[in-house]
Amino acid sequence: MKKPESNRSILLGAAFLMATSAVGPGFLTQTTTFTQTLAASFGFVILISIIIDIGVQMNIWRIITVSGKRAQEIANEVLPGLGIFLAALVVLGGLAFNIGNIGGAGLGTNVLFGVSPEMGALFSGLIAIGIFLVREAARIMDRFIQVLGFLMIGLTVFVMFQSQPPVGEAIIRSFIPETLDFLAIVTLVGGTVGGYITFAGGHRLLDAGLSGMKNIPEVNKSAVSAIGLASIIRIFLFLATLGVVAQGLDINPENPPASVFQLAAGNIGYKIFGVVMWSAAISSVIGAAYTSVSFIKTFSPVLAKYEKFLIVGFITVSTAIFTSIGQPVTLLILAGALNGLILPISLGVILLAAHNKKIVGEYNHPKWLTGFGILIVVVMAYLGGYTMINQLPELFS
């Protein structure tokens, strides 16, 4: 049996893994872009997304922990072949996210060195591959990213105070919005708990040997903490951007989050943001590639044997697609939206497993969590279908 201190470390690690997977370049770009278009009413979108995120996270993490199985293994027990289908969806969403992350790295190098986002993305893709192949460098990079993560939080809080946002209006519009945007809701939920992201922490718990009903209370706390951490950063960034928007300043559409930091904190803030953006993007590239490949490597010993080459190939394809297409801001929003479309399917599979005694044994899933989960599946399926038909095409028009 693991010592309590060991369990706390594992649970905290899972929470941070999920939160840092969510808080990447797409997260920053989506938040600033939608704040610019929705103003204070974006607070309502954040509130709704937080509620949905908690429901998704608690359902998925509990079932993974109780069953002691990864998501694709659970899906295959629900229905033979369903795990392969789920893995394909997650890999597709992970690829979309990785293309967006590569684009974020390109935006970061554009801020720092003035090179084109496409050229910066190509350089960053090569760096990401090198970081993965050299394990010691990856370990050093992980430490470096943690430091920059705290720097990003600190800088965002600083920018929030500098921009002097209308906090009172933000609070009111968080409950009584003037404008509703389904694409914003789908994108935020997809960018926080969609696709591979919500499974990253749950799988981390299994890798650390933490499973079983006895750990449910701690898993609940870890799941909520992960959403809380990501949400706090989202709120700070929303308020910082809202302050800039309220002043009537023009935000650069080619790099919205960097523009916000520059307008509020000057050129130093702009350059520091470039470092944080690039570092967060590289971290997300590696995390998305690794987690996506983990969904397919269990299907064959051959895939497991060549896992490293699959990850390198995943990063290479992501980089090639971005450098061919460009449009980093559009891709970062699209990535979140695609993962929002995957969410109803992945959560639906987990809810079916929650009441299958062959998978969960004697565990009884709370009725309120099941009902909440079903509501989320229905709402996200509707919103996802609506945005696919009516709003996503406008991104490329």
TrEMBL record:
The keyword Transmembrane helix applies. Its main location: membrane. Keywords: Membrane, Transmembrane, Transmembrane helix. InterPro entries: NRAMP_fam. It is found in: Membrane. The chain crosses the membrane at residues 38-56, 77-99, 111-132, 144-162, 182-202, 223-248, 268-296, 308-325, 331-356, 368-389. GO terms for cellular component: plasma membrane. GO terms for molecular function: cadmium ion transmembrane transporter activity; manganese ion transmembrane transporter activity. GO terms for biological process: iron ion transmembrane transport. It is a multi-pass membrane protein. This is Membrane protein. The lineage of its organism: Bacteria, Bacillati, Bacillota, Bacilli, Bacillales.
